[in-house]
């Protein structure tokens, strides 16, 4: 699944991008709010991970703008802003989830899968086509109920 990562910290962004790629995500990475808004409005993303403290345009302003434009892409706010009032504001402005840094990479991936699943009205993660089943969380494939190596 293709996601947009918006993070201005080079070390953290590089680590998140590499880690999410290893977990099966296709990750596009931008480092400022202006680029984030442009990508969100023009790109085709399953979800976005949005830092709130961004140069150029604050993450909350980006969130507010894309929601005003009726963008339905799920957005996970990932930020150091940990006050309850910050979390409430982020969620009220349209974030679908709000996570305080630092975050475990596997938890971030699970939250992204959950957001995408819910945005498509799906209650379970497994994908099935005939006798073939794929579980993106575990990256396992089964054919006729037997695990494929």
Short description:
The chain is α/β, with parallel strands linked by helices. It contains 5 helices and 9 strands.
What separation lies between the terminal Cα atoms?
22 Å
What percent of the residues sit in helical stretches (DSSP H or I)?
A: 25-40%
Q: How much of the polypeptide forms β-strand, as a percent range? A: 15-25%
Rg, please? 16 Å
Task: Quote the average pLDDT.
Answer: 92
Major β-sheet profile: 5 strands, parallel
Q: Which structural category fits the helices and strands?
A: alpha/beta
Within the largest sheet, what's the order of strands? 2-1-3-4-5
Number of helices: 5
Count all strands and give the number: 9
- The general outline is elongated
Care to describe what's here?
It is a single chain. This protein is an alpha/beta fold and 149 residues long. It has a 5-stranded parallel β-sheet, with helices on both faces. A 4-stranded antiparallel β-sheet has the order 6-7-8-9, with no helix packed on it. Helix 2 packs parallel to helix 3. It is elongated and about 50 Å long.
């Amino acid at each position: 699944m293709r996601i947009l990562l918006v993070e201005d910290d080079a070390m953290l962004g590089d680590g998140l991008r590499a880690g999410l790629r290893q977990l099966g995500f296709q990750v596009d990475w931008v480092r400022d709010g202006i680029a984030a808004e442009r990508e969100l409005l023009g790109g085709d993303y399953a979800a976005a991970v949005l830092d709130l403290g961004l140069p150029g345009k604050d993450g909350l302003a980006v969130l507010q703008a894309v929601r005003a434009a009726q963008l339905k892409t799920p957005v996970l706010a990932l930020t150091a802003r940990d006050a309850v009032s910050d979390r409430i504001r982020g969620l009220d402005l349209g974030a679908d989830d709000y996570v305080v840094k630092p975050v475990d990479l596997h938890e971030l991936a699970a939250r992204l899968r959950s957001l995408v699943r819910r945005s498509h009205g799906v209650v379970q993660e497994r994908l099935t086509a005939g006798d073939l089943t794929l579980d993106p969380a575990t990256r396992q494939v089964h054919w006729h109920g037997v695990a494929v190596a």
